[in-house]
Amino acid sequence: SAELCLLPALATLLPPLPGLGGPGSAEVGLGGLPAELRTAVRALVGDLDALFSALGLREENFAVGALSRIVAAELAGYAPARNRRRTATNKASVVFVDRTLDLAGAVGHHGDNLAEKILSVLPKLPGHKTDVMVNMLELTALQTTDETCSIIAPGCLAQPNDPAAKALWESFMNLKQKEAVMEARRHLVEAASRENLPIKMSMGRVTPEQLSSYIKLFRNNLKALENHCGLLQLVLATVQTLKHPQTSKWDNFLAFERLLLQTIGESEMPSVLNQLLPMIKSYNERTKDDYTCEDFLVLLVYIYSVVGEIESGKELGAAEEEVKKALVKAICDEPEPSPLLQKIT
């Protein structure tokens, strides 16, 4: 979008965690990093220099976090960047922040944002870190209940050639979910009106079923489909996200995170872990509303991130052991472990 530029090639670049073979809090330079991380930092510096060249920027660097300081220092001393800063006309302040300093933000569910939900719940587009697969079956006359049916190529979110879709994507990123869904309906109604499709405008709450019924109007009109293909893909992504079981779980996560914040304020970490324990269920005991092993890993990252420094002691050690045991059992009982669980084990 106009305000956000992602660098997916560097999606795996994470600061090393202290104590796990990574550097401690003491300052390290680029030479103190593992070889793979050194290469990634140099790649990032080169990419940023190319980006700033395209924007004609003369930057001033600021850094928060150990790895960020290394990146900022490397960029400051990078020969092509020094040359660029001598001739560039636009000034900018650049702030680098270590991703590990905001893990609570990355795993929390506090955002009322449709773009975040779409990117979280729909399957990734193969080979992409920042785009998803949108099922396009609804735009065809093909009727199949087979989830793996791949006759129809998937749609995606990137629609650079469709002004309406680009405007709608901006709404998904910048508005609250309720307003963004209303924008999706408005764009659909306008597109249908332009194509003289028999659309009945309704007021009130927008439902996924209502959006689906509007989408179906385009189905038998190839010209209308072609003219508004980008917009239809974004609205289909909205419908599929709103109907997705993970979206209803989103609110459960949010409620539990709020409860945790209250509990952590009032009591110690062991009691928070003991609260969590009965909710860790094996595959055979789980219903669709229960948390999976991956959900628990996300919750644990959230808890330990918001708590910060913890006093270790006997009680905490015992509570952590119980949670570990329950999680290991749940992971071992998974009939088909996800790629993440396979990687962890």
TrEMBL record:
A Gene Ontology BP annotation from the UniProt entry: vesicle-mediated transport
Keyword Signal on entry: yes
Signal sequence, start to end: 1-21
Keywords, sorted A to Z: Signal
PANTHER family in UniProt: VESICLE PROTEIN SORTING-ASSOCIATED
This protein's name: SCFD2 protein
Phylogenetic lineage: Eukaryota, Metazoa, Chordata, Craniata, Vertebrata
Gene, per the UniProt record: Scfd2
